[in-house]
Amino acid sequence: MVRGRVSLWVICVLRVALATVYFQEEFLDGERWRNRWVQSTNDSRFGHFRISSGKFYGHIEKDKGLQTTQNSRFYAISASFKPFSNKGKTLVIQYTVKHEQKMDCGGGYIKVFPSDLDQKNMNGNSQYYIMFGPDICGFDIKKVHVILYFKNQYHSNKKSIRCKVDGFTHLYTLILKPDLSYEVKIDGQSIESGSIEYDWNLTSLRKMEKTSAESRGWDQGEGDKAQDWEKHFLDAGASKPSEWNSELDGDWLQKPPFQDGLKAEGIDKDLWPQRKMKPANYLTQYDLSEFENIGAVGLELWQVRSGTIFDNFLITDDEEYAEKFGKATWGETKGPEKEMDAIQAKEEVKRAREEDEELLVGKFHRHNHFSRFHRQGEL
């Protein structure tokens, strides 16, 4: 029994060891993060980031992350890594976000970019592959974006996925699988899953592509055959070819004779006898979630009130590794973070009570002083 448990533990360790980690960032080395992250200079009005664990935290060092610092600003910053393709592999994107300022309107999402991103010039028009994470504005917008770039267009998940709206740190995870399934997790709990093809309204694109593929097959595969029949039509006296099959090729039509360059009427070049289409062996695995040269991750967003902290970035091909990484980071500090916030809240209540008491005492002393002065005046 003990040997069985040890073997299972070894298998789990080996599996995690075999995980490919494309990008991982925890901001644990002080200001050296500036060597890895590039602030866009596309607009001088872009807001600036700093490293901070916030006003309350679970661990002052482990909870340090990129924090927005200026109100009513756009932000644009990114980090690059060795390009890779997720074709045939699971893709896991994960990070933590903390709206310590109690977000009223602004983004908390991240974007995954192709490797040719111009980091210094990154802006809202920079092409990205994936946009994922919370977006809050007023009472109406409190959602998790999951946007995929496909066929030169951006496509949003049609399901409404609600995000967290409190001031604590939350773990967001997106999993895209080769079988075209996906899953969205918040704080390690699955909140939405399904089919990429159907939940992104991409079935119509599949049909369009299928029709286009069949059309190309007709143009290429039947082009020579059409030219052969054209030869017969050009000769008004030609007889029906011996290989002509009326059931497959339709009735034999002769092109009326014409002279002096006059075009024969009544026959359109496009009116070729229709072949009987065989069912196309269409792609069962479609490239709806495959990206060839993933090479950067970044924040490109707007915030009315600053203070959001982004941390614990991870891009990998292994769900188990992502789960363990989430537990080792957010999982270790989420409890102490809430405890510190509760202590601060109690201290704020205590200070407010003391300030009220001081005001009351001050009013009492002033009232007594005025009463004594008034009585002395009467005397």
From TrEMBL:
One record GO biological process: cell differentiation
Annotated PROSITE patterns: CALRETICULIN_1 (PS00803), CALRETICULIN_2 (PS00804)
InterPro entries (alphabetical): Calret/calnex (IPR001580), Calret/calnex_CS (IPR018124), Calreticulin/calnexin_P_dom_sf (IPR009033), ConA-like_dom_sf (IPR013320)
Keywords: Chaperone, Differentiation, Disulfide bond, Endoplasmic reticulum, Glycoprotein, Repeat, Signal, Spermatogenesis
Signal peptide residue numbers: 1-19
Compartments (UniProt record): Endoplasmic reticulum lumen
GO molecular function, one term: unfolded protein binding
Primary localization: endoplasmic reticulum
Disulfide bonds: 105-137
A cellular component annotation (GO) from this entry: nuclear envelope
Family affiliation: Belongs to the calreticulin family.
Assembly information from the UniProt record: Component of an EIF2 complex at least composed of CELF1/CUGBP1, CALR, CALR3, EIF2S1, EIF2S2, HSP90B1 and HSPA5.
Protein name: Calreticulin-3
